[in-house]
Amino acid sequence: MKKILVTGSLGQIGTELVTKMRGIYGADNVIATDIRDNGSDVVKAGPFEILDVTDAGKMHELASKYKVDTIVHLAALLSATAEKNPLLAWNLNMGGLVNALETARELKCQFFTPSSIGAFGPTTPKDQTPQDTIQRPTTMYGVNKVSGELLCDYYFYKFGVDTRGVRFPGLISYVAEPGGGTTDYAVEIYYEAIRNGRYTSYIGEGTKMDMMYMPDALNAIINLMEADSAKLKHRNAFNITAMSFAPEEIAAEIKKHIPHFEMSYDVDPARQTIADSWPNSIDPTAAMEEWGFKAEYDLEKMTVDMLDKLKTKLK
Ligand code: AKB
């Protein structure tokens, strides 16, 4: 049985991943950590510790205390926040990652951390972006993600740490809201559609980005961690995606269920610039071939589920 330490457990991915992994591996075998305690189920339903990921000593101490054999490192600033405070992003995103990789090396742990479509830049091929291609991102978040991908590869080749990772697209869920990302509009739109029947998009018409529904993202993490190591040629930074759409396409899908729904635009230049530098759609073939990645939800199926779940949540 795995014993897993998760950083950033109260974030958008962590909140659901911790719960799912506790169901699979046992509540006591998933140690949730975060910089704050929000009193949620993640905190109450199993071991929880306060951890600032820039504190290398505390991270090592907690991993030793619980004798973990796996580290899932999720704590990071997302793209829009990172762009507002690039130095903080460098220190937190890279400092946290190095500390987590060092802990994994010292304690011989398996390791997972997500990269992102943000690891690509304006000179990357925009459509069906290949697994191995030009990566010259123009955001601090992208610089962090490319550096992180390389660092994870390095820890595998140099020290034999079993590092694994995916490049996540925008993640959509009804449980925990994202914060500070460029793709967050695709979550907000569902909340606003139900609350007010209207949404003002900060991303402009025609701007396509890859997206994925959270259940597929959680399965991807667990399946990659469980995959046969011998079959992995890439290990880190696998392209994965479930759908690609522009704001008007998700709005049209919502309108099928909420006919009075209206969308308008008030483009935020900062987030639009980031979105414009990212691919329209990425090619997940390597992930499909090397560890059987498959997404269950497309835009249509996700929209039915999101609206259904949010209607209950927002009652
Ligand atoms: C963001 O928008 O920053 C994230 C991401 C795609 O990495 N959701």
Task: Tell me the CATH superfamily of the largest domain.
Answer: NAD(P)-binding Rossmann-like Domain
Name given to the CATH architecture of the largest domain: 3-Layer(aba) Sandwich
H-E order: EHEHEHEHHEEHEEEHEEHEEHEHHH
| Highest-level CATH class of the largest domain | Alpha Beta
What's the end-to-end separation, in Å?
A: 39 Å
Task: Give the count of helical stretches.
Answer: 12
Number of strands: 14
Bound molecules: 2-amino-3-ketobutyric acid
* Radius of gyration over all CA atoms, rounded: 19 Å
Q: Major sheet: order of its strands?
A: 3-2-1-4-5-7
Sheet with most strands: 6 strands, parallel
Mean pLDDT: 98
CATH topology of the largest domain: Rossmann fold
* Structural class based on helices, strands and sheet pairing: alpha/beta
Rough outline: globular
Percent of residues in beta strands = 5-15%
Number of domains: 2
Give unreliable regions as ranges: none
Helix percent band: 40-55%
